[in-house]
Amino acid sequence: xxxxxxxxxxxxxxxxxxxxxxxxxxxxxxxxxxxxxxxxxxxxxxxxxxxxxxxxxxxxxxxxxxxxxxxxxxxxxxxxxxxxxxxxxxxxxxxxxxxxxxxxxxxxxxxxxxxxxxxxxxxxxxxxxxxxxxxxxxx
Length: 139
Prior knowledge:
The protein is an alpha+beta fold and about 140 residues long. It has a single domain (about 5-125), classed as Gcn5-related N-acetyltransferase (GNAT) (Aminopeptidase). The protein is about 30% helix and about 25% strand. The protein is built from 4 helices and 5 strands; from the N terminus they run βααβββαβα. It has helices spanning about 15-25, 35-45, 85-100, 115-125; strands at about 5-10, 50-55, 55-65, 70-75, 105-110. Strands 1-2-3-4-5 form a 5-stranded mixed beta sheet. A hairpin with a 4-residue loop joins strand 3 and strand 4. The mean pLDDT is about 90.
């Protein structure tokens, strides 16, 4: 991916990222708003990775690490750029970040109904663990 640039998001990218997610990502999160994304960038400026090609946002992944777990969220690739190595490049960048921080395993949040995503994650070496379920509570 010589023409693909991976970089960390800045506060100036928040609105662009939110528009991108509306077009390229499956599902929504309670944190998919300006304050939520800005808070992520302010707290961990290296967590939100952006893939760009010719100055256009083509993909994202959140590579969060809390000192205990490596968590990958919001892996999204623009429909016009899928199957071109963007997701692989983003996940490789996330995994380098995690390894540098001392992470040992990546947990990925993947929508159950998003079959396309299941294939993308599996193609990069991830596997599903059926014995775990996510429990949530809105605050």
